[in-house]
Structure formats: structure tokens, C-alpha cells
Write a structure and sequence with these properties.
mainly alpha, Cytochrome Bc1 Complex, Chain D, domain 2, 3 domains, two-stranded antiparallel sheet, 13 helices, 4 strands, elongated, heme, Cyt_c-like_dom, membrane
Length: 317
């Protein structure tokens, strides 16, 4: 705050305090010619009389004491522009103290889970409750309060993982985020196979999860185009590549929708999905608790990674 604004506020505060003091002094005095306290001649309804009696002295003195207290309070806590107060108190400092105390309590609460694998943390019901609370506060905006996701936001309750479903992969996803990019292939495919190229690729991709479609004319035409463009990421068999976040095309899960129009848009215009990094926001231990909660959703039996090998299917969780 500039010095000019500080002096303006100081003048305003002083004017208010001295103005209140003067008003008390002026109205408490009786002057020559004032009517007697019992003689004002103001009557209503015949027997209701207004008197000219001053406030009791103890009441007026109480107001003076309140004004004196306000002066001491302002000098101690600040309130005169840029003057921080003799006691050096500030709302920012009070917040920092409260935050430090809360952080210490949280650290004590989270300490038992520090550095532990998330599949082991998932065996602790108390940890699952903590992880769910952190999830609801931070992750439910995209994945929903039930963690079932939406179009463009993966379902966390299934066993499909685009970036890997092992405890380490899930923790890495939460801490450092993921960025999945599906390039635009519309113009490339059209140049290779004409106007029907994109719909032919879509037909072939559908046949990967539905063998009954494999003999369709468009699917047969689309296989050649798929093998010329798509196998670099999704593989010859369409199983995808978790290192790239390329989804498995042989299952029945479609992150951006399974309608023909949605699949055509994915192939022709591409997709760009971003999972933010939460390392700075949550810290590692809270990220482990969230990961344990997410792990528990797709492992309702409570098995650990050592007891049940991680699935090879995919979804960008």
C-alpha cells in the first residue's frame, strides 16, 4: 500500500474516533435554557411523555472506554494503512500458524502410509476412507464422485488401464500425470484410400472387438489402411501400447464414446487427453492414499499385486 493511501486511511480512522468522542461530549452536556428532564411537553396518546433526560454517566463513560480500547487495538493489531501494528499481527501470519498446525496433524495422520506400496495400503479400511476423502476433494471433478468417469474421463472402477494398472504405474500417473495424444489421421487416410478411408478404418477397429464384423467389406478395406498407419501405436493385433498410452482396441471400452460419429471424430480429428500431475498439490503420501483407493475399486477382493498380477488391459487412469 502506498504512503498516500496509508495517510488517507489514518486520517479517516482518526476523524471517526475523534468525531465519536466529540459527539458523546456534545450531546451529554446540558445547556442554559434546556427544558428540565421532566418538562418537555411532548405527549402521545394522552399519557405517553417524552423526557429530556441524558444518558446515565456510566453509559457515557463506557463509550469513552470503548473508544480508548479501539485506539489501543488499532495500534497493537494494525489498521492504519501500511502500519502493521506494534504486535506485528497479520491475517497472513495467523493463517500460516494455523496451516502449520493443521499440516502437522495431517503429517501425523499420514505417517503410517509413507512410502508403502498402494496395494498394501489398500488393505487398511482407514486408509481407504482417507484416500476416498482426498479423491472426492481433488479427483471427482473429472472422474465423478463414483469414480465411473465420463466421455473423455476414464472409469476407475474397471480393470482397463491405458498407462498400466500395476501399483507403480498408478502411482506414477497420479504423481506425474499423463498426456495421451491421438494424431489427426483424416487427411492422411483420405489420401491413401479416398473419402471412405476413415469409416473403413473405424469398421476394422470395431471388428477387432467383434469378430462377427471381420468379414464386412469396409472392415476388410480398413485393415490395409490400419496396417499402414495405426500399428505403430496400437500394434498389429490392436492390443495397444501402455508405454505410449495407446489403448487396447480389442476390448469393448471406448474412452471418447463408441458411436460411429465419435469413432470417426477420434480417427479423423484426433484426441488430446491430459491427466494433471498431482505431486506438488498432494505430495507423495496423499497420492499413495488416493492410489490405494483407486486400486481398491478395481480390486474389490483386496488382493495385492503379488497375489494377483496386474492386468494387461488398458485405460488412461
Amino acid at each position: 500500500m502506498s504512503a498516500g493511501w496509508s495517510w488517507y486511511i489514518i486520517a479517516l480512522v482518526a476523524l471517526n474516533i475523534f468525531g465519536c468522542a466529540w459527539l458523546l461530549w456534545w450531546t451529554a452536556k446540558r445547556r442554559p435554557g434546556d427544558p428540565k428532564p421532566e418538562d418537555t411537553s411532548h405527549y402521545w396518546d394522552g399519557d405517553i411523555t417524552e423526557y429530556n433526560k441524558p444518558m446515565p454517566r456510566w453509559w457515557i463513560n463506557g463509550f469513552y472506554l470503548l473508544l480508548a480500547f479501539s485506539v489501543v487495538y488499532i495500534f497493537w493489531y494494525g489498521g492504519l494503512g501500511g502500519y502493521e501494528g506494534y504486535g506485528k499481527w497479520s491475517s497472513a501470519g495467523e493463517h500460516a500458524l494455523a496451516k502449520a498446525a493443521d499440516d502437522a496433524r495431517l503429517e501425523e495422520t499420514f505417517a503410517p502410509y509413507k512410502g508403502r506400496p498402494i496395494d498394501q495400503i489398500a488393505q487398511d479400511p482407514a486408509a481407504i476412507k482417507l484416500g476416498q476423502a482426498i479423491f472426492n476433494n481433488n479427483c471427482a471433478t473429472c472422474h465423478g464422485s463414483s469414480a465411473q468417469g465420463a466421455i473423455g474421463f476414464p472409469n476407475l472402477r474397471d480393470d482397463i488401464w491405458h498407462w498400466g494398472g500395476s501399483p507403480e504405474d498408478i502411482l506414477t500417473t497420479i504423481l506425474d500425470g499423463r498426456e495421451g495424444v491421438m494424431p489427426e489421421w483424416g487427411s492422411v487416410l483420405t489420401g491413401m484410400g479416398g473419402d471412405s478411408a476413415v469409416i473403413s478404418v473405424v469398421a476394422y477397429v470395431r471388428s477387432l472387438s467383434d469378430s462377427a464384423r471381420s468379414k464386412d467389406y469396409l472392415a476388410v478395406q480398413g485393415q490395409r489402411l490400419y496396417e499402414g498407419v495405426c500399428i505403430a501405436c496400437h500394434g498389429v493385433d490392436g492390443k495397444g501400447n501402455q508405454a505410449l498410452g495407446a489403448p487396447d482396441l480389442t476390448d469393448d471400452y471406448w474412452l471418447y464414446g463408441d458411436s460411429t460419429a465419435q469413432l470417426v471424430e477420434s480417427v479423423s480429428k484426433g484426441r488430446h487427453g491430459v491427466m494433471p500431475a498431482w505431486r506438488d498439490m498432494l505430495g507423495e503420501t496423499r497420492a499413495r492414499l488416493v492410489g490405494a483407493y483407486v486400486w481398491s475399486l478395481s480390486h474389490p477382493g483386496g488382493e495385492t499385486a503379488s497375489a494377483a498380477p496386474a492386468t494387461q488391459e488398458t485405460s488412461p487412469q
